[in-house]
Design goal:
By secondary structure, the protein is α+β, with helices and mostly antiparallel strands. Helices cover 43% and strands 21% of the residues. It has 15 helices and 12 strands.
């Protein structure tokens, strides 16, 4: 069956085996076709004891080669082509992603086909991959910023088994046979996959290739979805500090969090609050107070497994300035919540969003990400056309309300990195 979304130049096909194929031909770049595919499940479906095997499964399979070819043989065979196909498995989904130049597109489909039908398990490359990880871990844990990041990870997840940071012990839980079995399980049924293709191709020309390769992928008709593994942020105020390194440098990270009402409008408001706070905190903490190397802000609205949000604020400073800057941060948050914000900030954020969107609309990557996002979250892809409406609706009141809701000073995680105390 075919569905056409003419307003955004997108066509959707449903193949006989259940696979959905979403296509947007573009003329943004002559030599580029991008693709992405996802299906629900991910490593949430494996037992805890198999978690590491599942988490590393896609990499282990990639390192092993494909079909009858080792990775070295495969790379050699593809050396004159511009093509890349990589499988992935994350917590809630699994899939593939890649890119190809138009003249090599059939090769891309052949590789996709092989990952479903002939993944390879190779003990030599498995051991080499494991040894590389061990070398990486040895170097990694010597760096203060990595120890800081690990501490944030376990604090956020309340020491959940699946949020353990990389360590030598964790690597010993890797298992080639289990990785291979789990990979096969995840990719044995292509029927619930959705594939997205964006770039320089013609629908008529790509259709027979899609039908030949994707249309013949195995489909068992199983219905499955991810499960909630119960990893949740702590409630209330949780503070933690780490001492690592000798440089007189500190990093401070706040993660405000809580429930979120997932929709198009709220995601945009959260993003706009991020933009406003970024300008404001940089002005105050970096320019006025001169106390920080930089302030970074990013937000994450979360839909699955539960509707939540995270509002991250991070800054670097001298250890003796941590408390002063933390105080300044909360004063600014309080000010926006109590008195609102100057209209200029709103205009700046609106202008930035409009400019970014103008550039985005001519990028294959933007369309690929947007389409896969809307399908993953069961939303109408035509929402993409309502962006200007959202930007125009932004106001001082909207931001003030959002600041009260999303920057709740009774609910955050705070982690600080200090240098080690030298006796």
């Amino acid at each position: 069956t075919k569905v056409k979304l003419d307003d955004i130049g997108v066509t959707q096909w449903t193949l006989a085996n259940g696979i959905k194929v979403v296509l947007k031909p573009t003329d943004f770049k002559n030599d580029e076709i991008l693709f992405y595919a996802h299906s629900p499940g991910g490593h949430s479906l494996v037992e805890d004891v198999d978690f590491m095997a599942a988490r590393t499964a896609a990499d282990v399979i990639t390192e092993s080669g494909l079909g009858t070819f080792t990775k070295i043989e495969l790379d050699k065979m593809l050396s004159d082509k511009i093509v890349s196909v990589s499988p992935w498995i994350n917590e809630l989904n699994e899939g593939l992603q890649g890119n190809v130049s138009p003249q090599d597109q059939e090769t891309m489909f052949q590789l996709i086909y092989q990952y479903f039908n002939a993944p390879r398990s190779d003990s030599t490359s498995f051991l080499a991959y494991k040894a590389r990880l061990e070398g990486w871990i040895e170097n990694r844990n010597a760096r203060p910023e990595n120890v800081f990041r690990d501490s944030i990870q376990v604090t956020k997840a309340q020491h959940h088994l699946r949020a353990r940071p990389w360590s030598m012990g964790l690597i010993q839980e890797m298992d080639l046979e289990n990785s291979y079995r789990i990979f096969n399980e995840r990719f044995s049924d292509a029927g619930d996959f959705t594939f997205f293709f964006v770039g320089n191709f013609e629908l008529a020309a790509i259709q027979p290739i899609v039908e030949m390769y994707l249309g013949s992928l195995p489909s068992t008709g199983r219905t499955e979805t991810w499960r909630d593994v119960g990893m949740e942020m702590p409630t209330g105020i949780v503070e933690n500090s780490v001492r690592k390194g000798i440089e007189p440098k500190s990093m401070v990270r706040f993660i405000f969090n809580g429930d979120f009402n997932w929709n198009f409008e709220n995601r945009h408001i959260l993003k706009s609050l991020e933009g406003v706070m970024e300008i404001k905190l940089r002005e105050i903490m970096r320019e006025d107070m001169g106390g920080t190397y930089g302030v970074w802000i990013w937000t994450e609205p979360i839909h699955y497994p539960q509707e939540k949000y995270e509002f991250n604020i991070m800054f670097g400073c001298a250890p003796e300035n941590v408390d002063t800057l933390t105080q300044a941060l909360f004063m600014q948050i309080d000010s926006v919540q109590t008195y609102g914000i100057d209209g200029d900030y709103i205009s700046k954020v609106q202008e930035k969003h409009r400019q970014a969107r103008e550039v985005d609309l001519k990028e294959n990557k933007f369309w690929l990400n947007s389409m896969s996002f809307y399908y993953l979250h069961g939303e109408d892809p035509l929402n993409i056309l309502d962006f200007d409406k959202l930007v125009n609706a932004l106001s001082v009141e909207v931001i003030q309300t959002a600041a009260r809701e999303y920057l709740n000073s009774d609910n955050y995680v705070k982690v600080v990195l200090y240098p080690e105390v030298v006796e």
